[in-house]
């Protein structure tokens, strides 16, 4: 395990609307912690307009020791995309509805606990993926789940209930789509219910599509759910929620360092929860240990 480090100058990027949570008290907590530990800090509140450019300028102008993303997966994605390839670590205080990456990294979902990372932490280098130029740190999909994510993002309702409702509506009528996949060591050609490009493990809903994936091993997985009879759906869902999807006869996994996916039916794609338009040819590149993240110390590591 790496040595604990101390950050003296931190930028906190706060999304004021993420997770529908009032952040006033959180700002006071940050101020208290930073004062107590002699940490200089700045807060940037996102507006939804030009946030990435503004944060980029700030990072270039100041000498930060860490940049924290405080919000949901969208906020994490913006900040992470600016830090990949640099030594500057990404801190995450999860406040969205899914918070998938932070869960896979073992970051506390309780805000008070997560804030302790500001003064007590370790740093770990993780892999990131580039999918036709889009950064993916967590999980990206083609197929059924991508369609549900797209409808969810376009709909007015948030939260797990809305997601489950859309999934149920789409499930009965959904037909698997055709894909051709070439990796550095394997190929696949045929239909699939969904194709997940997995740098990490579980979706924000806790459905674990890649239970044995390791986020810093220089490899990623393409996880396929192959066509199955509708009646088998409940069994697959059960396996997803009990970390045992690898045992399903409908699950197939290609572990690789690079891949090209031909999305032959032009199915919907999402990258880390955000629907995106892509060419039929999708190239996936691995950037090994390209992002430093701030992680909590386990109890026995603290002073
Ligand atoms: N002040 C703001 N007003 C309106 N929209 C904003 C503001 N700041 C950021 N946004 C938008 O918020 C979105 C990102 O939200 P984020 O993912 O952080 O939270 P969330 O949607 O609540 O969480 P999750 O992605 O986990 O569901 C982006 O689309 C961004 O443009």
Automatic annotation (TrEMBL):
Alphabetical keyword list: ATP-binding, Kinase, Nucleotide-binding, Transferase
Domain DAGKc stretches: 5-135
Classification via Pfam families: DAGK_cat, YegS_C
Listed EC numbers: 2.7.1.-
Keyword Kinase: yes
InterPro entries assigned to the protein according to its UniProt record, in alphabetical order: ATP-NAD_kinase_N, Diacylglycerol_kinase_cat_dom, Lipid_Phosphate_FormReg, NAD/diacylglycerol_kinase_sf, YegS/DAGK_C
Presence of the UniProt keyword Kinase in the record: yes
PANTHER family membership: LIPID KINASE YEGS, SPHINGOSINE KINASE
Protein name per UniProt: Diacylglycerol/lipid kinase family protein
